[in-house]
Design goal:
- The protein is built from eight helices and 14 strands.
- A hairpin with a 4-residue loop joins strand 13 and strand 14.
- The longest helix has 12 residues.
- Helices cover 24% and strands 30% of the residues.
- Strands 4, 5, 6, 7, 8, 9, 10, 11, 12, 13 and 14 form an eleven-stranded mixed β-sheet that branches. The chain has a three-stranded antiparallel β-sheet with strand order 1-3-2.
């Protein structure tokens, strides 16, 4: 029998979600069955899966699980250089969150051939497995990402991201000359296997994607844009600009073969009204160099 006492950080979490984190390898159907027959109880009473936990609740789990099941994810060993790089990249920090300036070609999470990403690195840096990034950008994309330092801020910030209450802007360098000072792209996107495509408003699988663009500078047959995301769809900027005929420089998936090693997409602005936080970065040096090329 395992017993957990709910702390302030887990107050308001649904019982099934709490159990899913504690019993990572136990099938969800088995967890639901255990709640139904009373092998899992809260304060010695059976509760439904949508019960919202309260501070001080006692959760009893009468399932047989291995030690591996309940063991915390071990922290990775960080070198002094890696610690310094993480510290240097933090552009804002308070008790609830950090905003980190991710370099290009750095992954967010482990997987796809990478033993660890900055998420696992920061868990080790803070010595806390409750640390989580609430938004993510692709490996080749650089710029600002938001990390929550505890469970409460993870829930709050995740909801803010879901409701599009966090303002995000990107610098984007694209092929071709765009002379419009300001324009809006409002279309519908859907995912087909590992790619995102533009679809019609009538498509039931389509999700509306809105971006406000401003033209900032021109180079030799290239244009620097500022892009403000109104919605946050997967690969939104890459797909919209490619569909427009001005693919992002270095975009090997949606663009053209331009022999560029860098993707010229940089998250430079982040505003979180809920926490009264606003961060803005200057144009990256590698953008400026490419404009002068």
């Amino acid at each position: 029998m395992m017993k957990y006492i709910i702390e302030k950080e887990d107050e308001g979490v649904r019982l099934d979600r709490y159990l899913r984190k504690k019993l990572k390898s136990t099938p969800l159907t088995e967890i639901f069955k255990a709640m139904r027959i009373g092998k899992i109880k809260v304060n010695n009473k059976k509760k439904k899966e949508n019960y919202r936990l309260m501070e001080g609740d006692k959760v009893f789990i009468g399932l047989e699980v291995s030690e591996e099941e309940i063991k915390e994810e071990p922290f990775i060993e960080l070198s002094l250089k890696e610690k310094e790089e993480l510290k240097k990249g933090i552009v804002f920090e308070n008790d609830d969150l950090i905003i980190f300036n991710k370099k290009k070609d750095v992954v967010m999470h482990k997987g796809s051939g990478y033993e660890y990403g900055i998420s696992e690195m920061f868990k080790s840096y803070f010595k806390d497995n409750n640390f989580n990034f609430v938004n993510r950008i692709d490996r080749k994309t650089s710029g600002l990402v938001i990390g929550a330092k505890n469970k409460i801020s993870t829930r709050v910030l995740t909801e803010e991201v879901r409701e599009n209450n966090i303002k995000k802007k990107y610098y984007v360098l694209v092929h071709g000359i765009i002379n419009k000072e300001k324009f809006i792209i409002d279309n519908y996107l859907k995912k087909i296997e590992d790619k995102v495509v533009v679809t019609s408003e009538e498509d039931p699988e389509g999700k509306e994607a809105i971006t406000i663009f401003k033209t900032l500078k021109h180079g030799k047959n290239i244009t620097l844009l500022e892009a403000e995301l109104i919605t946050g769809r997967t690969h939104q900027l890459r797909v919209q600009l490619s569909h427009m005929g001005n693919p992002i420089i270095g975009d090997t998936r949606y663009g053209i073969k331009d022999d560029e090693k860098s993707l010229y997409l940089n998250s430079f602005y982040c505003e979180i009204p809920k926490y009264n936080v606003k961060v803005e970065l200057p144009i990256s040096e590698f953008f400026e160099l490419r404009l002068k090329k």
